[in-house]
Amino acid sequence: RDERSYDLKLYQEAILLLMHENRITDDELYHLQVVVEKWKLYAKEKEIEDVFMNQIGDIPEEFLDPIMNSVMKDPVLLPTSGVVIDRTTILKHLLVDSNDPFNRKPLTQEMLQPQELLKEQIKAFFDEKLKVFQSKATA
After folding, report:
1. Are 97 and 41 a contacting pair, CB within 8 Å?
2. What are the residue ranges of helices labelled H in the chain?
3. Cα 115 to Cα 132: distance, rounded to the nearest angstrom
4. Would you put residue 45 in left (φ > 0), alpha (ψ -120 to 50) or beta?
């Protein structure tokens, strides 16, 4: 979910250029149009999520990834440092460095310890906030 690398308008212009230059088959065009439509849906969902997140207020610190400062969706414990971090964040890190980012000790994906209770607490927190958000939206 890293939007910095994507620009829908640029993508659509590239498709038009490919069509104009006759460098794309109908089948390829269809598949690219499917991607564009999915992208549009994602953009709308992201917009709604941003409004929701802006109305939540304070989020408990223990729900935030210590590196990305974003809400953790799948928290895991790094046994080498005792730090809880989002699985996606640490997996990206482990692709380029096989050490714990907090103490530089060796760390592997297999060593990560899921934090199911924290995951449930985060979900419950946001479920409650979502109910309030939806009730305000329908009022």
Report:
1. no
2. 8-20, 26-56, 87-96, 116-138
3. 26
4. alpha
Residues in the chain: 139
Name the residue with tokens 């802006």.
54
The one-letter amino acid code at 26 reads D
Chain segment 34-70, per-residue pLDDT in tens:
998 998 898 899 888 888 888 888 999 999 999 999 9
Tokens of 42: 């994602």
**105 CA to centre of own chain:** 27
Distance CA 55, CA 135 (A): 13
Q: How far apart are CA 86 and CA 73, in angstroms?
A: 6
| Residue 4 in tokens | 């910095």
pTM (2 decimals)?
0.70
The two most distant CA atoms of the chain are separated, in Å, by 56
